[in-house]
């Protein structure tokens, strides 16, 4: 800030792990990641598997959480980083949970140092049409800056008829301790509580705290959010995405997650730019883009009052 055995990796920095690039008897190989150095010490690493952003290093720290127990393959997504959710969110559809984009290999475009961007593309194929019978082209662009990161998801309708979809960037932000982490900017927004069977809840008039499982969908969240973690503060901006999902499994639920290390839930918070409650509708030939920008800011002291 489940399926296969744990990754065997070497620790690089606190909370940061190197996933193995070679397969084993029990786990397939992860495609070699693309690495891009940005301004200053900014660096990102992403895999063509799921167009998955694995690491964002900026200002001397790893800013994303990646579980040391993460597994992948055979419909299994990587736990941590930024999974891409498309074309459905959760079980809100007839396809795989959270869609198929995060568990398919995308095409990595040649890195362009001049553009300072990593780009991936995914087009419909037989495997996708079994779950979602539409012709489409999706793209993911990752752009690191000196103090920020921008991730943009685009979708184009290549079919002869209109279709609808949901999408989200399931961002795992690394934090020092979830108990001292707050999310500001949602105080006046009602939400659906997925931890309580989707119950509709009124605005809380307070920052989001994490005293147990938190799984909320906030609608029409158009202004920037701020995540404070002790002395640090990060601003989260969204374009094209109308909703925000805030998630942490809490201790009880995390204990049953094989791809999360003991106590791992304390080291991240998911603040997701999402389009869930009103799916995007595209006519033939139309395109949509949604983006999330994460910006490192100064002291969190100005947000302590009421926090």
UniProtKB/TrEMBL annotation:
Catalytic activity: alpha-D-glucose 6-phosphate = beta-D-glucose 6-phosphate
InterPro entries attached to this UniProt entry: Aldose_1/G6P_1-epimerase, G6P_1-epimerase, Gal_mutarotase_sf_dom, GH-type_carb-bd
MF annotations from Gene Ontology: carbohydrate binding; glucose-6-phosphate 1-epimerase activity
Name of the protein in its database record: Putative glucose-6-phosphate 1-epimerase
Similarity annotation: Belongs to the glucose-6-phosphate 1-epimerase family.
GO cellular component: cytoplasm
GO biological process: carbohydrate metabolic process
Superkingdom field: Bacteria
Keyword set, alphabetical order: Isomerase
Organism (species): Lysobacter enzymogenes
EC number: 5.1.3.15
A Pfam family reported for this protein in Swiss-Prot or TrEMBL: Aldose_epim
CDD domains assigned: D-hex-6-P-epi_like
EC class: isomerase
Active site, per annotation: 170, 272
């Amino acid at each position: 800030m489940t399926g296969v055995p744990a990754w065997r990796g070497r620790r690089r920095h606190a909370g940061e792990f190197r996933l193995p690039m070679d397969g084993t008897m029990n786990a397939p190989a992860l495609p070699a990641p693309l690495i891009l150095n940005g301004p200053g010490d900014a660096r990102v690493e992403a895999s063509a598997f799921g167009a998955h952003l694995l690491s964002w290093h900026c200002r001397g720290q790893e800013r994303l959480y990646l579980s040391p127990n993460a597994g992948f393959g055979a419909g299994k997504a990587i736990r941590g980083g930024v999974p891409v959710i498309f074309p459905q969110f959760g079980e809100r559809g007839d396809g795989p949970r959270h869609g198929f984009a995060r568990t398919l290999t995308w095409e990595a475009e040649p890195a362009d140092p001049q553009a300072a961007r990593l780009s991936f593309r995914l087009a419909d194929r037989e495997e996708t049409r079994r779950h979602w019978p539409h012709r489409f082209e999706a793209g993911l662009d990752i752009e690191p800056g000196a103090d920020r990161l921008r991730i943009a998801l685009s979708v184009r309708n290549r079919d002869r008829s209109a279709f609808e979809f949901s999408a989200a960037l399931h961002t795992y932000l690394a934090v020092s301790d979830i108990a001292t982490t707050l999310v500001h900017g949602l105080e006046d927004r009602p939400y659906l509580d997925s931890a309580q069977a989707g119950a509709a809840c009124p605005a809380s008039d307070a920052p989001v705290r994490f005293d147990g499982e938190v799984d909320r969908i906030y609608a029409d969240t158009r202004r920037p959010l701020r995540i404070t973690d002790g002395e640090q503060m990060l601003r989260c901006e969204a374009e094209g995405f109308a909703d925000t999902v805030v998630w942490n499994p809490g201790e009880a639920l995390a204990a049953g997650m094989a791809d999360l290390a003991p106590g791992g839930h304390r080291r991240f918070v998911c603040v997701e730019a999402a389009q869930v409650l009103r799916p995007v509708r595209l006519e033939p030939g139309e395109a949509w883009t949604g983006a999330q920008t994460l910006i490192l800011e100064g002291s969190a002291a100005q947000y302590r009052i009421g926090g």
